[in-house]
Specification:
The structure holds 2 protein chains of 2 kinds. Chain A is built from 12 helices and no strands. The longest helix of chain A has 34 residues. Helices cover 57% and strands 9% of the residues of chain B. In chain B, a hairpin with a 5-residue loop joins strand 1 and strand 2. The chains are: A mainly alpha, B mainly alpha.
Chain lengths: 329, 225
């Protein structure tokens, strides 16, 4: 068959598909097509693929080939694109998707937790016993600033300034951008064969441990521990989870198993992503608690009580949310 | 075929051509996005600064969202950030479909690794070592940055009486004749003649007559007599 006859015979089908694709490429509200028209998309598209293959094998003109290729490309995108994100899926993700994803990767979580907590305990213990050791972790100004923050004479702990509702909001913004940013970087550090994640975990463990040990030694334990214990439930756990997600990337790159490094990375990164997103959600909660509750003036006993409840909540959520009666979820 | 075109075979057995974008054009796109983001930061910081601590806190939250999720927002909405769109680029999955939300999140969270140790050095190294110009985030997310195909205006073959070519032509030669006829409207008259006279030995014509003669052959190839 000659090219022009071929075109004449199939032009209408191509035009029909083109109009449908034009419509589908518009935003959802502006679409005009009916259900019946949409149902024709797969058959129109497969027919087009057939025509494109024929046009190529019969060496029809390059312009025709180009025209059909563009249509094939657009059809392929519409037919094979994934489902879009919906609000409901976000709710499902938080309700059980994230805890389940974490439990599937629990070994990485324990490793990350050890990398965070062990240096914290060691350095914290040494700083508690050795007064001058804190200065090898941070400089004098930082130590002085930190002591001022948790001075029992300070009416609102956690900050050296007199805090008001306004500074609460300011600190909230700071916690969001700083802490979630650290979480994301801990994940991204996994791309350096896991090294970045490990270093960030160690570094955070050392810094937190040093501060805790030092402040306990100088006798500010009540202001410090009552301030950090509440949001710490969410924050420390989330940092360990971000570390775990980075370790997953690192593991894929170091020991890809039977896959190529690239394939292993692609597969494991998809598994690690829910961990990071869930951890970001936990850090968001931590920021709310830290800005509006931890800095409050409630009695120390109440703060410890709430902190205990929050830790239980985190353990219960991560350990049991989304488990089915007889499933392994 | 240029070596930056990648073939992806669809389930229908069709080879899709994807034109991969290189580091230079992507840097330009990044610079444009950077300017837009800087403008956004200013536009937000100035009015919020009148709100005191509250405004400062809010602007920090917004800055954080812009820093990490500006590309995600635009990639999911229209397949490309404004900078990429201005450079005619878009982000797609390596199977030719639009970028999914998880892939977009991955490639943009891992931007932090690409940035190391300074100014996207790791990302650039990764792009130069990789035949698809993927930075680390692209590798993990399985995404490509490609040129967005503009809908091309198709030119019809010139209307002339078909003439049977004086001798049998190979497939390649037939396609070359057809391509010449279709591209004629894009060429100057002098260039048309210049190209057509390459085949003077075949057509036996000179000047514009040679052009018309080749059009007649092309017309015959496309539609017969």
């Amino acid at each position: 068959m000659r090219q022009l006859d071929f075109e004449r015979r199939h032009r209408d089908a191509w035009e029909q598909l083109r109009l449908l694709l034009d419509d589908l490429e518009r935003s959802r509200r502006k679409r005009r097509h009916s259900r019946a028209e949409l149902a024709r998309l797969p058959s129109l598209y497969r027919e087009l693929c057939n025509h494109y293959a024929i046009a190529r094998s019969r060496h029809y003109s390059p312009a025709l080939e180009q025209q059909l290729h563009e249509l094939v490309l657009r059809g392929h995108r519409q037919l094979y694109s994934g489902r879009s994100a919906e609000l409901w899926r976000l709710v499902q993700f938080i309700a059980y998707g994230f805890p389940r994803a974490l439990r599937r990767q629990i070994r990485y979580f324990w490793l990350a937790a050890v990398l965070l907590v062990l240096p914290g305990l060691l350095v914290g213990g040494f700083c508690y016993l050795q007064p001058e050791l804190i200065y090898s972790v941070m400089d004098e100004d930082q130590v002085a600033g930190m002591e001022a923050m948790y001075d029992p004479g300070n009416r609102k702990p956690g900050r050296s300034l007199e805090r008001s509702a306004e500074t609460d909001m300011m600190m909230f913004g700071h916690y969001i951008s700083n802490n979630i940013g650290i979480g994301f970087r801990t994940f991204a550090g996994g791309m350096l064969f896991g090294l970045g994640s490990v270093l960030l975990l160690l570094f955070n463990g050392v810094a937190i441990g040093a501060v805790a040990g030092h402040l306990t030694r100088v006798g500010y334990q009540d202001t410090f521990w009552s301030f950090v214990s509440g949001h710490g439930a969410f924050e420390l756990t989330a940092i360990a989870i971000c570390g775990a997600s980075g370790l997953i990337l690192g593991h894929a790159l170091i020991a890809p198993g039977q896959l190529t490094r690239l394939d292993a990375l692609k597969r494991r990164a998809r598994e690690a992503l829910p961990l990071v997103m869930g951890a970001a959600f936990m850090l968001l909660i931590a920021a709310v608690i830290e800005a509006f509750w931890s800095s409050g003036t409630a009695a120390v006993e109440i703060k410890y009580g709430v902190a205990g409840l929050l830790w239980l909540l985190v353990v219960y959520y991560l350990g049991f949310a989304g488990r089915e009666a007889h499933g392994t979820g | 075929m240029l070596d930056t075109t990648r073939r992806y075979e669809t389930p229908e057995g069709i080879a899709l051509g994807l034109r991969i974008a290189g580091p230079v054009v992507r840097s330009c796109a990044w610079a444009i996005d950077m300017l837009i983001r800087a403008g956004l930061y200013l536009a937000i910081a100035i009015p919020f600064s009148f709100l005191g601590g509250l405004g400062f806190g809010l602007s920090l939250v917004v800055f954080f969202l812009i820093e990490w999720f500006y590309p995600v927002f635009f990639e999911l909405r229209q397949g490309a950030t404004p900078g990429k769109k201005a450079m005619g680029l878009e982000v797609i999955q390596d199977n030719g479909t639009p970028v999914s939300w998880s892939a977009s999140l991955l490639r943009n969270l891992l931007r932090a690794a690409d940035f190391l140790p300074f100014l996207y050095a790791a990302g650039l190294a990764s792009m130069l070592l990789n035949r698809n110009f993927q930075r680390l985030g692209d590798l993990a997310a399985g995404t490509l940055v490609v040129y967005r195909d503009k809908a091309t205006q198709r030119h019809e073959l010139p209307e002339v009486t078909p003439i049977h070519p004086p001798q049998p032509l190979t497939r390649e030669e037939q396609r070359t004749l057809l391509a010449f006829a279709e591209r004629t409207p894009l060429l100057t008259a002098e260039r048309q003649v210049e190209l057509a006279e390459i085949l003077s030995a075949l057509s036996g014509r000179q000047g514009t007559a040679a052009v018309t003669e080749l059009h007649a052959y092309a017309s015959w190839l496309a539609q017969g007599r």
